[in-house]
Structure formats: structure tokens, C-alpha cells
Amino acid sequence: MKYVFGFLVLTGLLLGILAWQGWERYQDFLATPLSIPDGERIFMLEQGASGTRIVEQLGELGVTRPGWQWRLLMKLEPGVYRAGEYRLEAGMTPRDLLAKLSSGQVVQYRFTLVEGWTFKQLLDALAANPVLVHELDPADPDSLDSFVVSLGIEHPEGWFLPETYQFTRGHSDRDILDRAHAAMERALEQAWNSREDDLPIDSPYDLLILASIIEKETALVEERPLVAGVFTRRLKKNMKLQTDPTVIYGLGDSFDGDIRRRDLQTDTAYNTYTRRGLPPTPIAMPGRESLMAAAMPAPGDALYFVANGNGGHTFSATLEDHQKAVKQQVERN
């Protein structure tokens, strides 16, 4: 009996020592950062993945080795792990990793829609993005027509607000376009509701068209109300707008980078040298500043402007002064 008792005591001690060593190994596991070369790794958590599968994926990435410690951690500290793409960073411990997978803080990407882009340029940029799912085919007119109809508009040009849009892997080009269109509708409504009373335009769409021309005429935010003032006064006087960007847009793919006299004299729906009033559609995607400039043009008497060679423009009230400004610019060149 004495020997049995001694055996049980010895066995208990050994089990206690093993348990203590196991607990110490577990604590070391919790405190030891994962092996994340180059400072970070991108980890894609699959929808519905089990704890075992998560650890297997981590092992495939080379950031850890599967083992009983992971099973114990997931049992003692259970979590709801959200599918998505996660950025694993240097110094992250196993507990940190599971907390991140439970947080849903997935990797965010950015797509910037640039002010002054045409719809074609926007489609090309979306098609070139390697993360987005591509639902629209720029080469398929039927696909694009169906999408435009779904937005409740007749022509897509100008209808997407230039901003930076965040998205996660799995989002599509159409998701970005839907958000950009909704943002433009809100921005256009705000500009239209803020407009001056005596503007020579009849609808929010006219304001969008005018804003697109302003966007293409100057890159200087402070000049946009001045440019808007010129075009507004010209419209009121029934003068032709005579703006090169509309002519260039009307030329389409035939424009080779140089606008010629014959281009200004060739009539198209977008040639504001041959036709009065606004062109039939926007010619680009205007930003918020151009929308507000079209709604609230700067006061003054200028009817003309010409590039000054310094990134801005010289504004003139008379044709004589304008011709002098043009001559000075030619002489500088």
C-alpha cells in the first residue's frame, strides 16, 4: 500500500511538472510574435473557415506552425472570425491575430476618380485595377448601355463625382460607379440649390454641363468662378462660348493633341465656335469646386480669357484687350 501511495504521489508530481511545462510553453506561444517576413503579410480568411483551416492557412503562409497551442487558444478565447483580407504586421502575437480576424478590420483599397476624366478614361482606369472584380466590359456597348439605363440617365458623361473611394477585395467596378454616381447626384443637388437666381441655365443637368467645361478650362480652383462668370455672361448675351475643350471632345478619337483652325470651323454638336449655347452633354467629370463655380459665378464684366503661360489666364472685358493679351502670349512663346 505504501508503494502504491508513493507511485501515485510521484505520478502526480510528474503530471504537475508536465502541466506546468505545458503551461509555460503555452504562455511563450502567446507572447512570441508571429514570423512575418518583410514587415507584413496579407492573409485571406475564407468564408466559413474553421479554426483548424485558419491555422492551416497561417502555416501555408509561413507565419506560424500548427499545434496544440492554437487549439487551446481558440478554445479558451473563442471568437467570431470574419471573412476578408487582413494585413498581418510585424510584432503581432497569436492573440493579436485572432483579435484582428474577429474585428473585421479588412484591408482597404483606394480608387481615385480624377477631376476632368471622361467616362472612357474612368472605364479604362477601372479595368486596369487589379483588385476590383470586373463586371463591365468597356468594349461591350450593350453592357455599358444596360448599366447607364439602370442609373436612370441617358448619357454617362459627367455623372460620376471625382473623389477617392475606398473598397475591399470582392467589390466590383460597378460598385465604384454606383457610389460615384450617387455622390454626384448629391453634389449636383447641393450646387443647384445654392445657385444664383439669374443664371442662364434651366436645369441641374445644364449646370453639370457648364461645370464640366469649367473643369476642363482651368486647373486653378481660384479661377473657376472667374471662368464661370465669363461663360455665364456669354450665355446671357447669346454669344458663342468658343471654348476649345468642347471642340476637342467632339473630335473624339480623331484628336491628335493639336487643335487646328479647321477643327474650330468644322461643325459638330460640341463645337461651341459654330453653335450657340451649351453642348448637348457634359464633356468631362467636374469636381465639387467646378459645380459650385457654375452655380455661383464670380461677378465682373470679363467676356474673354486666354492662357497666360503661368498656369492661369488673363481675363478681358473687351475684344481689343483680349487680342492684346493673346498677342502678348504669342510673343512670350
Describe the structure.
The strands form three sheets. Strands 1-2 form a two-stranded antiparallel sheet. The protein has a two-stranded antiparallel ribbon with strand order 3-4. Strands 5-6 form a two-stranded antiparallel ribbon. Strand 5 (304-307) and strand 6 (313-316) form a beta hairpin. By secondary structure, it is mainly alpha-helical. It has helices spanning 2-31, 51-61, 68-76, 94-103, 119-128, 141-151, 173-193, 204-217, 224-236, 244-251, 261-265, 288-295, 319-332, and strands at residues 40-45, 84-89, 109-112, 164-167, 304-307, 313-316.
Secondary-structure map with pairings?
Elements: H1 2-31, E1 40-45, H2 51-61, H3 68-76, E2 84-89, H4 94-103, E3 109-112, H5 119-128, H6 141-151, E4 164-167, H7 173-193, H8 204-217, H9 224-236, H10 244-251, H11 261-265, H12 288-295, E5 304-307, E6 313-316, H13 319-332
